[in-house]
Amino acid sequence: xxxxxxxxxxxxxxxxxxxxxxxxxxxxxxxxxxxxxxxxxxxxxxxxxxxxxxxxxxxxxxxxxxxxxxxxxxxxxxxxxxxxxxxxxxxxxxxxxxxxxxxxxxxxxxxxxxxxxxxxxxxxxxxxxxxxxxxxxxxxxxxxxxxxxxxxxxxxxxxxxxxxxxxxxxxxxxxxxxxxxxxxxxxxxxxxxxxxxxxxxxxxxxxxxxxxxxxxxxxxxxx
Length: 223
Known about the structure:
Helices cover 51% and strands 14% of the residues. By secondary structure, it is of the alpha/beta class. It folds into 2 domains: 8-130, Rossmann fold (3-Layer(aba) Sandwich), CATH 3.40.50.2300; 140-222, Arc Repressor Mutant, subunit A. Strand 1 (8-13), helix 1 and strand 2 (33-39) form a beta-alpha-beta unit. The longest helix is centred in the C-terminal third of the chain and has 15 residues, at 189-203.
């Protein structure tokens, strides 16, 4: 059972009508989804958002006459609470890294199955993000490739983490969900979210993607 107990409005931005229609059919069957709005262009989406902002946007990066990252930046500048899940055929690390750093809440391939899409939407609505091993690997490679930092066993003294916070951080970097982390560490999901919030505050990371970047930069993932 989903923990979502409020009506959810989802918008789609994709220029392929059949793909949008298929998504709409799948999403409309979710018990908490009250409305699914289809848009084929950024201008259509902007009109939709200004009339009534959706909770979640499923965004394709490959659109005629539209730069996906620029579109995301424009949308997030105006609609700061919009939760963007990228749904695209582009799988290169550079796209994943760019979109996560811009503020996307997750990044999925278009061939993701229905269960994975549903889980991503629910995680984003409940915890604010849906992190996968693919996202983690892309972020870590992006940080480590230019200038690899020497390995250290702990984060710098400037940021003191508890042993449990370090455990949670490592599992976040592996792409584990809050539920998976809770199960692994035998703690509640609420406790996991509390540790994650503490990590964000201590590291000044904007989101989970920022936590992965921080951990990779400081060699935590090499130990």
